[in-house]
Amino acid sequence: MNRVRKVPLRKCVGCQEMKPKAELTRVVRTPEGDIVLDSTGKRNGRGAYLCPSEACLNVAVKRKALERALKAAIPQEIHESLRRQLVGDGDAH
């Protein structure tokens, strides 16, 4: 008997679309309070998911969706760092 695996879905905090977890980029607030991109999807801490596009990041920043999801204030330099990393990852698609 062939079992159909359930694909885990997550909502992008930018565009608010439900997408397969594997297509999204996880942003994590670690227990130490650092905000980083989680390429493995397994880091400890509070996570939020974003499409790997600059447009979704811009919307999330503008609406403060990322700050609400991570329950932390995010300084501008972190936004810039995330943008550089996301745009770099987004070119692979």
SS field, number of helical segments: 3
Task: Tally the structural domains.
Answer: 1
* Helicity range: 25-40%
- Tally of strands: 5
Q: What top-tier CATH class fits best?
A: Alpha Beta
Radius of gyration: 14 Å
Low-confidence stretches are: none
Report the principal-axis shape: globular
The CA-CA distance between the termini, in Å, is 34 Å
Structural class: alpha+beta
Q: Regarding quaternary structure, how should these chains be classified?
A: single chain
CATH fold-level name: Hypothetical Cytosolic Protein, Chain: A
Strands of the widest sheet, in order across it, are 4-3-5
Strand fraction band? 15-25%
Summarize the structure in words:
The chain is an alpha+beta fold and 93 residues long. The chain has a single domain (9-90), classed as 2-Layer Sandwich (Hypothetical Cytosolic Protein, Chain: A). 32% of the residues lie in helices and 22% in strands. It contains three helices and five strands. The strands form two sheets. Strands 4-3-5 form a three-stranded antiparallel β-sheet. Strands 1-2 form a two-stranded antiparallel ribbon. Strand 3 (25-29) and strand 4 (35-38) form a beta hairpin. The longest helix is centred in the last third of the chain and has 15 residues, at 76-90. The chain is globular. The model has no long low-confidence stretch (mean pLDDT 88).
